[in-house]
Amino acid sequence: MPQHEKPPIVSEPTDSTSSVYSSARDLSQPTVSLTRGLSYGVRLKMEGLHLLSTLPNGGVPVVFFDPQYRGVLEHLSYGNEGETRGSPRRALRQMTGEIPEFVREIGRVLMPSGHLFLWMDKFHLCSGFADWITGTRLEVVDMITWSKRKLGMGYRSRRVGEHLVVLQQPPRRAKGVWTRHDIPDVWVEPVAKSRHTHRKPVGLQAALIEAVSNPGDVIVDPAAGSFSVLEACELTDRRFLGCDING
């Protein structure tokens, strides 16, 4: 679905299952005070772990995390798939060994029933990522596939999508927390032109931000890349706090 279009709102069910739905949030974010040198709504150039370390425990409702890892690129060694076409991503600083540390810090700063939206490729989804969330209380509650309408790499099937794993801090619940019920689990949004090699869909991220936060809430992205989450925050009247090591 193109980012400028929203799917029709699904009518609330009228039978006994209606109790699991809610169009209003009953959660409020605690006040978050920023340390010196940090600002909302800007492209901070700094280490993501350092940014997270400045935040208080249980203070934010939403974190997006798109970790840099070699993943499937380490397993491609044919033609130009692992070289020419994969070279922009290979050139980025990798954080494979740091991912569990990032996720632990994210779990620390998320408020009760807060959400982590974790971007993941097919390789890690299939091979397992349990070690990434070990030592946290985060629970997997959903997954959304982003269809990019563009063929990517693959030995057999060619990838046209990426996956967004949805994790929640206890207590795990949807009613009063997740307020949009029109987000499909396969989201179609063409890849936007960008200098960044792995730009993510602004439309999808904006819809998710609206679903699990209130206007004015702080949305954190400690590995912002193209800063697509910043754009999504600007569209949804949320306060973006994020950084990238490359600025």
Quickly describe the structure.
With 247 residues, the protein is of the alpha/beta class. 21% of the residues lie in helices and 20% in strands. Strands 1-8-7-2-3-5-4-6 form an eight-stranded mixed beta sheet.
Keywords:
alpha/beta; eight-stranded mixed sheet; single chain; 20% strand; 247 residues
Report on this structure.
The protein is of the alpha/beta class. 21% of the residues lie in helices and 20% in strands. It contains 7 helices and 8 strands, in the order E-H-E-H-H-E-H-H-E-E-E-H-E-H-E. The protein has helices at residues 48-53, 87-90, 99-109, 122-127, 130-133, 202-212, 228-236, and strands at 44-45, 60-65, 110-120, 139-147, 161-168, 186-188, 218-221, 239-244. Strands 1-8-7-2-3-5-4-6 form an 8-stranded mixed beta sheet. Helix 6 crosses helix 7. The radius of gyration is 18 Å and the shape is globular.
